[in-house]
Design the sequence.
């Protein structure tokens, strides 16, 4: 899909006429310059995060003697403090564990649900598909209070299991919808052949439909992983112990001590928390984009 | 890939299937079993809490004490509560301005990206980065950028350009804090809007533009008569999504201002959290959260009808 997109001929008028100096200049002013400004603004906070991470305190709070846009004597003190004097590695591990477990759970549930809705078909299956999708529009910020009470009654308060079980509520609607779209694109004749040959429905799902839907599974998995890595309000409300917190919550609640903000460590915490998900994303950009746009387009 | 899939069924074991296999091949049973994990999780952790939350809004539940049904008492006290009304007003203001800016700038970015550009896929990948980085973590970066003493924006305006005499008190003054929060929200929302709209732009057949150009349409006319109408269905859905998630935003406010200064930047979600968790008034917190629902229902209907209209368009037209 993305290749086709890149090859698509341009339809803007700038390129119709002969390319003279004026045309080039106009192209720079109307396209490249605004794009550069957009990219600069979108990336600047990350540059600022990164540069603050490697600054010493002396440099951080003295703009008159040091150029704030650059580090003259980079230091790893902030990262060292984060890794060895706080529970940061533990928080990273918890976040990773929760994100992976809830993604797997959501994918498992979504594959079967999407298969039932798209392939087994029954009366009202289309409506069920739409209502599962609409569940994605129920935001966590109106659910967290009753969920907190339920989690407490179930005896799950302050456990990782509370997060692993609640995250799929916003992952399943999205994954199911995406997988329905993928299953739709797989020719039904393949399944009919297998049915005629005497394969059972589950064998068909396992040996034919799933292998063909692998790109869809990867897209859904990546999207679910980044969503759970990003989650904040449930982790803030359901977890109390320091060592069980996820990175976003812990950076905000544990690294801020009273009124003294250690900006160096805070930025280091934000940077290290963003890197895993950014790396993960960079390997699968195309899948990610197709799932993002697919969810809206389908 | 297709060939392997076609040869496989021949190797499947056909005779003497076990009883379990036969039960699993019974279609209604299989449907129920397949739907069970997803529907089970959604009913227990989504539908039930939604109803339970609505019930809680009419009780005086506190932390650690089950409440009693008190009817509309929570809403009666909220209606007399200035902080609540400030939160409602600011939530609407925040949603409207953030959404308008996000869509204006996002559409512009999408149109720019729709040109023939070098390194286009790299560019698109970079642009999505603000959206995939956890909101709270980028919000902390904004918190630091908005620092009263060491803000880099103030530094550039005062010391480099000399346009101002004093550093800006970004988060200490209610209106500065509000616009700063809107800016941070717009910053994070632009990539999502731009990439979704770009996908929409790329589905518009170039032949339409060619025909319009032959007929002598100006760029402005091509934009309003072709691009916008063709983009409408996807725009409506992205808009509904964006409005819902901006209206119920929590992370950004909680990370940057926590509702301050003097409760002036509390969204309904952060106010609900403050009353329910910090103030232990679970009933009152739920009442505030439930007050968001009517608005969300309206937005969902818009999304649903946009979807329905799109289906109708696809079914009705010949291409």
Sequence:
């Amino acid at each position: 899909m993305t290749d086709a997109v890149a090859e698509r001929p341009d339809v803007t008028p700038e390129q119709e006429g002969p390319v003279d100096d004026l045309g080039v200049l106009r192209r720079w002013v109307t396209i490249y310059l605004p794009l550069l400004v957009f990219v600069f603004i979108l990336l600047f906070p990350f540059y600022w995060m990164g540069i603050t991470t490697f600054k010493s305190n002396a440099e951080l709070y003295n703009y008159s003697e040091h150029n704030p846009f650059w580090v003259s004597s980079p230091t790893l003190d902030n990262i060292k403090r984060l890794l060895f004097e706080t529970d940061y590695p533990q928080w990273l591990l918890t976040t990773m564990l929760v994100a992976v477990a809830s993604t797997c759970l959501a994918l498992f549930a979504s594959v079967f649900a999407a298969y039932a809705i798209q392939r087994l078909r029954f009366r009202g299956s289309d409506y069920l598909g739409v209502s599962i999708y609409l569940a994605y529009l129920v935001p966590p910020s109106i659910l967290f209070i009753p969920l907190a009470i339920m989690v407490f009654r179930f005896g799950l308060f302050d456990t990782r299991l509370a997060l692993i079980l609640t995250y799929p509520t916003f992952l399943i609607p999205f994954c199911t919808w995406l997988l329905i779209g993928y299953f739709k694109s797989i020719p039904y004749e393949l399944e009919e052949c297998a049915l005629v040959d005497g394969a059972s429905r589950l064998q068909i799902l396992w040996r034919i439909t799933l292998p063909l839907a692998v790109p869809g599974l990867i897209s859904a998995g990546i999207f679910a992983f980044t969503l759970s890595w990003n989650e904040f309000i449930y982790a803030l409300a359901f977890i109390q112990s320091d060592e069980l917190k996820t990175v976003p919550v812990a950076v905000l609640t544990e690294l801020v001590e009273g009124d003294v903000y250690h900006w160096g460590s805070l930025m280091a915490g934000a940077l290290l928390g963003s890197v895993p998900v950014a790396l993960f994303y960079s390997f699968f950009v195309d899948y990610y984009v197709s799932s993002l746009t697919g969810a809206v387009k389908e | 890939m297709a060939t392997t899939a076609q040869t496989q069924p021949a190797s499947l074991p056909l005779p003497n299937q076990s009883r379990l296999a036969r039960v699993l091949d019974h279609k209604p049973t299989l449907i129920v079993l397949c739907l069970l994990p997803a529907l089970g999780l959604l009913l227990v952790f989504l539908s039930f809490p939604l109803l339970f939350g609505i019930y809680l809004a009419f009780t005086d539940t506190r932390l650690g004490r089950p409440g009693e049904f008190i009817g509309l008492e929570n809403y009666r006290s909220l209606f007399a509560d200035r902080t609540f009304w400030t939160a409602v007003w600011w939530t609407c203001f925040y949603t409207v301005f953030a959404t308008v800016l996000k869509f204006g700038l996002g559409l512009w970015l999408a149109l720019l990206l729709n040109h023939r550009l070098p390194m286009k896929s790299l560019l698109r990948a970079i642009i999505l980065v603000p959206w995939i980085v956890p909101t709270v973590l980028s919000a902390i970066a904004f918190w630091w950028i908005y620092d009263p003493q060491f803000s880099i924006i103030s530094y550039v305006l005062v010391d480099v350009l000399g346009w101002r005499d004093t550093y800006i008190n970004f988060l200490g003054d209610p209106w500065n804090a509000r616009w700063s929060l809107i800016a941070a929200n717009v910053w994070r929302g632009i990539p999502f809007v731009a990439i979704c709209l770009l996908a929409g732009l790329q589905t518009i057949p170039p032949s339409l533009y060619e025909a319009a150009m032959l007929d002598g349409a100006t760029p402005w006319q091509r934009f309003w008569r072709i691009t916008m109408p063709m983009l409408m269905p996807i725009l409506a859905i992205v808009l509904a999504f964006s409005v819902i998630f901006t209206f119920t935003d929590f992370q950004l406010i909680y990370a940057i201002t926590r509702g301050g200064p003097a409760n002036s930047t509390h969204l309904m979600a952060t106010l609900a959290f403050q009353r329910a968790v910090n103030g232990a008034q679970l009933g009152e917190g739920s009442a505030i959260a439930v007050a968001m629902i009517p608005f969300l229902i309206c937005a969902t209907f818009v999304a649903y009808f946009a979807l329905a209209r799109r289906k109708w368009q696809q079914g009705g037209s010949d291409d």
